[in-house]
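User: I'm preparing a small set of examples for a lab meeting where we compare how different chains pack in three dimensions. I only have the primary sequence for this one, and I'd like the structure in token form so I can line it up with the others. Please keep the answer compact; I'll paste it straight into my notes.
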Amino acid sequence: MTDQSIRVVIVDDQPLFAAGLAMLIDAQPDMRCVGTAHDGGAALTLVRQVRPDVVLMDLGMPGLNGLEATRLVVAEPTPAKVVVVTTIRRDEAVYLALRAGATALLTKDALPAEVTRTIRDAVAGESLAAASAAVDVVREFARPAQTRTPDDTLAQLTAREREVFLLIARGLSNAEIADATVLSEATVKSHVRQVLGKLGLKSRVQVVAFAYENELMGARP
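Assistant: Understood. Below is the structure token output for the 221-residue chain.
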């Protein structure tokens, strides 16, 4: 374990489940659990104290629930990546958490390798939107709120950024986007950052939700 370890906070109102996740994380050579909390209010306080890279966030907690806690965590000046941990995958609360800026979701029966891979991917900024579970939730619960044409909605993006936006919305990874656009992955990552910044979005899953809500999936690059 090094100073470059991925710092993880676990938020869950079941102490035994939280302890199990903490043991899994601390067993990884590149991760460490820097704290656990059992409700959303305590989670926000802890996040502000320890500044983790990733928060594993349960949604169904007493007091300040995981959805509200997610909104507050991603609104921090230097936000952590939030990974929703849920017992029910196909649920509107899960969609709302993803729409609020959560990076990905895990079900509580996920295999240890899936948990650790998702944490690493979240930090790397890789295509968590490509995780079919997250995209399926967005497709099921996103409701069109289109009031402008696609050209108006994406007007602030350059032609290349618009192309990248639509590929992100389809769930492609950086490597897949690089192949599709004949760009380097480094250039793709730069375009992804520009797309998120210009549209005020926090995650790639938010791009998927934004695209569905604004009926942009059929828009021209």
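A couple of notes for your slides: The first helix runs from residue 15 to 26. The chain has two domains: 6-124, 146-213.

User: Perfect, thanks.
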